[in-house]
Amino acid sequence: MCKKQINKEIRTGGGVPKLALHRIERLKIIKPSVEEQNKIVHAVDNYNASIKAEENYLSKLKFIKKGLMHDLLTGKVRVNIKAEGP
Q1: Torsion angle, CA of 50/56/58/62, rounded to 10 degrees?
Q2: How far is 6 from 27, CA to CA, in rounded Å?
Q3: Residue 46 half-sphere exposure, CB side, CA atoms within 13 Å?
Q4: How far lies 30's CA from each of 3, 6, 33, 35, in Å?
Q5: Are 19 and 10 in contact (CB under 8 A)?
Q6: Contact 27/1 with Cβ under 8 angstroms?
Q7: pLDDT in the model for residue 16
Q8: Are 10 and 17 in contact (CB under 8 A)?
Q9: Domain range list for the chain
Q10: pLDDT of residue 10
Q11: Distance from the CA of 16 to the CA of which of 28, 41, 46, 67 falls in 20 to 30 A?
C-alpha cells in the first residue's frame, strides 16, 4: 500500500521518480505500536543469536575437520580399509 502511494506521489512525466519535500511530507506512513516494535526487536535479536550460535558451531566443526585431516594426512592416524571381494 505504501509503495503504491509513494510511486503515485513521486512519479512525473516520463515515468522517472522525482522526490520533492512537499510530496514526501504528504505521505502517510503507518508505524507499529511501541509494543509491536519491541516484539519485532525481540524476534530479530533471537534470530541473530541463533545465527551466531550456528556460525560458532560451524567454526568448531571446521576446526575439528582441519585437525582430523592433519592427523590423517601426516599418518598420525591410520585408516584400515578392508577390501571387499566378490
Answers
A1: 180
A2: 7
A3: 6
A4: 12, 13, 9, 14
A5: yes
A6: no
A7: 46
A8: yes
A9: 1-30, 32-75
A10: 62
A11: 28
Q: Cell triple for residue 41?
A: 526487536
Q: With contact defined as beta carbons under 8 Å apart, do 53 and 40 qualify? A: no
Cα-based distances in Å from 37 to 31, 42, 58: 9, 9, 31
Residue 61 identity (one-letter amino acid): L
Cα 43 from chain centroid (whole Å): 13
Owner of C-alpha cell 566443526: 61
Cell representation of residue 51? 545465527
Cell numbers describing residue 52: 551466531
Vertex 5, ends 18 and 33: CA angle to 5°?
Answer: 120
Residue 15 CB partners (closer than 8 Å, separation 6+):
none
| More reliable by pLDDT, 64 or 18 | 64
